[in-house]
Amino acid sequence: MLKTSLLFFITALCEIIGCFLPWLWLKRGASAFLLIPAGIALCLFVWLLTLHPAASGRVYAAYGGVYVCTALIWLRVVDGVRLSLYDWLGAAVALCGMLIIVAGWGRTS
Prior knowledge:
Largest sheet: none
Number of domains: 1
Mean pLDDT: 92
Structural class: mainly alpha
Number of helices: 4
Strand content: under 5%
Distance between the termini: 19 Å
Number of strands: 0
Low-confidence stretches: none
Radius of gyration: 15 Å
Shape: flat
């Protein structure tokens, strides 16, 4: 479970970075060269999702819970926005959903 969670976390970081860098270019006037590492990050994101032993729909569903948590951590660390109690509760619910889905891998067809 820990390995899967860490892999999802790294996957989420790749997705967020792959979307954040073009945002910097479009909204903040950063260099267009940021599109190169953005493309690499998004390719890594897709590849990392293929490393899980479950059907793709289950992987995407479980990944969503970790993505929510990672996006909120990004909001706090990178954007400097203080998280509310509702943010933390939502993240906890999303993470519990991921844990339930992953716990069922191998138990269903």
